[in-house]
Amino acid sequence: MKNKILFIALLFASLGFNSCSNFLEEDPKSQMSESEAYKSSDMIYLNTVASIYPEIGGTSGGNGLGGTDRGIYDLNTFTSDEAVLPTRGGDWYDGGLWQAVFTHKWGVSNALVLNSWNYLYRVIGICNQKLDKINSLLEADPSNKYLPAYKAEVRSVRALFYYYLLDMYARVPIVQSSTTTIADVQQSKRSEVFAFVKKELQDSYPYLNAANSTKSGAYYGRVHVRLLSSC
Fold first, then answer.
1. CB–CB of 121/114 below 8 Å?
2. Which of 24, 40, 87, 170 has minimal CB crowding within 10 Å?
3. What pLDDT is stored for residue 31 in this prediction?
4. Residue-wise burial string across 203-215, b where 16 or more C-beta atoms lie within 10 A, e elsewhere
5. pLDDT at position 89, please?
């Protein structure tokens, strides 16, 4: 009798585990397969090029090329006479952060220096991921007339971020692929970084559209020929 009861208990337990396993199965309706994400030229653009542009702005401290605190904008303005943040009592002292920046007494652990470095290389890493994907799509479909333009646009955005690294840090590593390992990353001379940025823009120039990026339309806010020709 006991063995029969034990058998029934084990049977119900196994059934319970099998039914519970269904809860672990996921079928998110918002998830898109890779084949779906890159099924057309428009979808390729949205998932490679367009997704980079929001990174130029910032919604939290340390992110964005301008407008957020403790990042690139503050590092460029509070280290000069362009801006100063006075300390009144304990307000805005922040452990002496702003005084150290204004008097040029900082190290690699300074929040503005560290945040700017992390942000710039984070976006460069995203650009590298997108370029790796575009390159793989080009290998699969060399005749796709849109892909070279998409590649040029991402390379131009990446060059913009390397320009900021060049301007603020001088000797920095040049990383051109998301598959590059840390062991292979090497610091480059400032002249090498400058030459890299220049070449990236020159190579991209022939593939970029001449549409005005300040007017509404498909090319609003995007890298374009006029922007590069004025540099």
1. no
2. 24
3. 64
4. ebeebbbeeeeee
5. 83
pLDDT at 109: 86
Burial class (CB in 10 A: 0-12, 13-18, 19+), 138: middle
> Is 0.85 surpassed by the pTM of this model?
no
Burial 139-154 (b: 16+ CB within 10 A, else e): eeeeeeebbebbbbbb
Query: Amino acid letter at 175?
Result: V
SS3 173: strand
HSE-CB at 144 with a 13 A cutoff on CA atoms is 22
Q: Please, what is the end-to-end C-alpha distance for the chain in angstroms? A: 90
**Three-state DSSP string of 60-83:** CCCCCCCCCCCCHHHHHHCCCCCC
What does the alpha-carbon distance between residue 77 and residue 84 come to, in Å, rounded to a whole number? 8
d(CA 86, CA 76): 17
What is the C-alpha R_g of the chain?
Answer: 25
Residues of the chain with pLDDT under 70: 1-32, 35, 226-231
Residue among 191, 121, 150 nearest 51 (CA):
150
- Alpha-carbon distance of 113 to 100, in angstroms, equals 12
